[in-house]
Structures are given as C-alpha cells and as structure tokens.
Amino acid sequence: MPESPSVLVVGAGLAGLVAATELHAAGVSVCVWEAHSRVGGRCRSPAVGPDEVRLDLGAAWHWEEHERVRTLADRLGIERVRQHEPGVAVQEWARDEPVEPFEWPETPPPSWRLVEGTQALHERLAARLPDAALCLRHRLQALRHTGPAVQATAQTPDGPRATSVDAVVLAVPPRLAGHTLQFEPALPDALSSALRGTTTWMSPSAKAAVTYDRPFWREQGLAGRVRSAAGPVHDWHDATTPDGHAALVGFMHPPGPDSPTPSDSGEQRAALVRQLVHCFGEAAGAPTGVATADWRHDPATTPPTGPKPGPHAPPDPAPILQRPQWEGRLHVAAAETATEHPGYLDGAIEAGRRAALTLA
Q1: pLDDT value of residue 202
Q2: Distance between CA 330 and CA 212 in Å, rounded?
Q3: CATH topology of domain 1-43+118-201+299-360
Q4: pTM of the full structure
Q5: Which in 69, 89, 111, 187 has the greatest CB count within 10 A?
Q6: At what angle are helices 345-359 and 14-25 packed, to 10 degrees?
Q7: Are 194 and 318 in contact (CB under 8 A)?
C-alpha cells in the first residue's frame, strides 16, 4: 500500500470511530460513512425530559474488566458513575397482585455508566476528525476489489455516491454486512458464512427510559430495581445522575402480538406508567419524560432476516473475522469480532484498534 493510504471506515459506532481517530492521528487519510443521521451505532443516549437527561437506550454499562472503556472515558474527559444498586428491589409477578420487596444481593460485580451516556464517547471521538471526514446518512451498498483499490458505493440523501480507497474497515455488525452488502469478487464461503452467522449482541432488545422531578424511590429506601414477570419492562434500573436528576431505564419486551408492550406509542407510554405506579406507588404517575427504542427495527443494526424472538446468545466470533481479506484491503472490525468481550463496548474498542494498527 502507499505510505499514507486512504481508508474508508464504514460505521460510526465505537469500533469505527476508534479506528478512524487512531488512523487519522497516524496521518492516514480517512473517511467515515454512517447510515444513521447521528454517530453512536448501537449506543444512543437521547436527552429525555425538561432537564434533558441523557439516558442510554442502547449499550449502557461496562464492568471492572473493561479497562479499555475506563481508559478511553478518562482520556475523553467523560465522568463515570457506579450503577446504583443498594436498597430494596421489587418483584412484580402479576399486574393484579401486590409487588414483593426483596433485598438486592451484593453478589453481582459492580458496573459503571457514563454520566453523559455512552453516545458521548462517540461524539467526543468524532470531534477529533476533520469535518469533511464524517459523512452521515451514507448507507454502504457494495464493495468491489479492483487490484490496487477498493471501490465503495453508498446510497445518500443526494443519490448514489462512489469512492475509491486503498482499504475499507467494516465496523458494522457482521450479520448486517453479510446479509445486506454486495461484494465483488464474492467473499470466500467461510467468511460469508461467518458474517451471516455471527450474533449481533443485544439486537433483539428494546429499552425504555423515564425521568421524574425527584428520585422518590430512594426516599422510600428502594433501589429503583424492578424485576417483572408481568409488565412491559422486565428489568428496571436506577439511572439517576450524580447531580440528582431522577431517571429509570429498563429492558422492555419488544412490542408484538404476544407481548405485554403495546405497539401504539401512546398506549405504550400509558402501560409503562401503569407498571411503575404498580411497583412504586402514585408518585410514579407523573413522569417528566419518556423515551423508548426497539432495536429490532433499526436497519443500520439489524438485517431484514432477523433477529428472531427467543434466547439470545453472546457472539462467538470465528477467527476468520479477525483476519484481513482482499490482500489486506478489507478489514472486519465490529465489536462482535473482538477476542475479548465481543459485542461489548470494550470489545468494540479492541476491534477498532486492531484494524487501525494493521493499516496505520
């Protein structure tokens, strides 16, 4: 390759932006194409409620062993907060039965959140790139290897766009790439099969977030932790900020015919509030903000072929996904390809750095 190759990074999630910023810092000419109208990939942290509390509707937590996340957050000046767990949790068995309090055990390993939400990692990284390097609403459609270059074609709001680069970093979920992209020449069967067969971690999930004028559950000695067998959200967590902006975030059953979560947005909000009133009392009846996300229907994350309902296993990446293809000009660098913590934020950082080190 030339001494200063041009590289196209596909995907402005954490892996893609880590790869892009490290390549840029090494003097490599880099461009990022992102299908969404925002950076963040599967990290989305909208401002919820009148106080605009940034809450994670996608990836949220990291743990003690995720040293890459801690180091990156510190380097970018983003505050971490330990997940609030102490106190009494609530079990909801049925909507017409009283909830049962129980002591939440101290056995789970401690986890951390980012005060500004995980999307802030991406925004700080993107700010380190030249303005022209980040191209939003660019949905990659095809890659063609033509000897000394790779030609890429994307659909944009202004129509098709094509470019020729020395190398491409695919920092999108492998399953999405395997099912939606055209490759010329066709990828080896083993690689194509590995792309299509790699689980996209948490892609079948949905989340809900609510804000309040105060964390009334803490006043009652409650942890804000709910486990439910009846409501639209099966696990609620306290997401109150260090400066006291009250919030709860939970994993929601995706809407569907057999789901306790209504599909209509108004009915969905009402169901969420009813559940919280059932669990915490009348003080929960007046949220200041509500937001939800259903990742099953995000076309930049999930191909039309899935995911299917049911148990969802963590990714187990095939080694071929970690090896360059097309004579070193094609690299797969999604979080699911990491050797450590695949699918998690920490794995995304590892995967992005692997591609950057190879191409810099």
Answers
A1: 84
A2: 47
A3: FAD/NAD(P)-binding domain (3.50.50)
A4: 0.94
A5: 69
A6: 30
A7: yes
